[in-house]
Amino acid sequence: MRFLTVTPNPSVDHTVELHALTRGEVHRALAGSVEAGGKGVNVARVLARHGHAAGAVLPSGGVDGTRLETLLAPQDVRAVTVPIAGSVRTNTTIVEHDGTTTKLNEPGPELRAADVEALQDTVSRELAANPDWLVSSGSLPPGAPADLHARFVRAARRLGVRSAVDTSGAALAAAVEAGPDVLKPNEDELAELLGRELHTVGDVVAAAAELRTRGVGEVLVSLGGAGALLVGDEGTAWAGGPALVPLSTVGAGDCTLAGFLHARGTATQRLATAVAWGRAAVLLPGSTVPGPAGTSAAAAAVRTLDDPHPDTLVKDLQR
Ligand SMILES: Nc1ncnc2c1ncn2[C@@H]1O[C@H](COP(=O)(O)OP(=O)(O)O)[C@@H](O)[C@H]1O
Ligand SMILES: O=P(O)(O)OC[C@H]1O[C@](O)(COP(=O)(O)O)[C@@H](O)[C@@H]1O
């Protein structure tokens, strides 16, 4: 398949491994690594590793823009960069030996009106080549309009291209109104969007159903260690697997969405693939994305359930 991703706020991802983090202390890190990051960038990276044609549109500028492009160059992703005056951000992740992952995401460079216009023009030009999917992902940097993902979804629809969105906050609220074919919030993002806590399967399903009445196609809600729930035309399904100790959860959500779009079959089968790709990602350090060997090994451990009981607590889904 052919995928186009757009990441308005890409990043250089810096991961630092520590035994344990103590605020206010000097730490001697066990290891450190740097990778190309940002949600759409990661989606493109993992899809490319699975043999798909993946283009990634991203604004790039400054020393860290050059660094990001250099890191991305060997990864079979067709990078389509939009030059900007500001410098690409660095996001730092601290991973402790028990798998606890702490993320420090910078706001990103200011996008000027001309940058936003250039980004939109680039996406429109790329959509004209008729990819199978547009994936519009991640936070929006300062200066970007809150409805930027929504604009990309509408541009895709005008050209008959299916769209998937993974974002948060005001950008997520605006994207919902554009009715993407697939939305991938995590549990916290969904709760924030709806302005209420989500404790049970029924809470999550009702929240997802509400988004569907507003025009969203399938809602794929990732639940961290508790797997993921899918709500769509074929009903509700859950997939997850035995507890594991993550090496780094950075990029797991991106791999989950990518696996979902890669997969064929019933809704439950596509969900199972999504969860396998997410689980494979957490077993790799930093923002490293899994290849086919990792995702198929992870698939063997995935369990699925159609119509999980609405009273089940999300945190108990695995038991
Ligand atoms: N601690 C964990 N144990 C097992 N699987 C995990 C863990 N954290 C994440 N995953 C897998 O990665 C997927 C995405 O993780 P999640 O944290 O929900 O996404 P996001 O990174 O978007 O917040 C989950 O659905 C799950 O399959
Ligand atoms: O755009 P945001 O929300 O700040 O997130 C950016 C960060 O998210 C990532 O794309 C990882 O995302 P997930 O862990 O949700 O899959 C990192 O590569 C990047 O540093």
Keywords, please?
binds adenosine-5'-diphosphate, UDP-N-acetylmuramoyl-L-alanine:D-glutamate ligase, 319 residues, four-stranded mixed β-sheet, globular, alpha/beta, single chain, binds 1,6-di-O-phosphono-beta-D-fructofuranose, ten-stranded mixed β-sheet
Structural account:
With 319 residues, the chain is an alpha/beta fold. It has one domain: UDP-N-acetylmuramoyl-L-alanine:D-glutamate ligase (3-Layer(aba) Sandwich). The chain contains ten helices and 14 strands. It has helices at 39-49, 62-72, 113-127, 148-158, 169-177, 187-194, 201-213, 252-262, 267-282, 292-299, and strands at 2-6, 11-18, 31-37, 53-60, 78-83, 89-96, 101-104, 133-137, 162-166, 182-183, 218-222, 228-232, 235-240, 303-306. The strands form two sheets. Strands 5-4-1-8-9-10-11-12-13-14 form a ten-stranded mixed β-sheet, with helices on both faces. The protein has a four-stranded mixed β-sheet with strand order 3-2-6-7. The mean pLDDT is 97. Bound molecules: adenosine-5'-diphosphate and 1,6-di-O-phosphono-beta-D-fructofuranose. 1,6-di-O-phosphono-beta-D-fructofuranose binds at residues 9, 11, 13, 37-39, 42, 91, 105, 138-139, 168, 249-254, 287. Keywords: ATP-binding, Kinase, Nucleotide-binding, Transferase. This is 1-phosphofructokinase. GO terms for molecular function: 1-phosphofructokinase activity; ATP binding. Belongs to the carbohydrate kinase PfkB family.
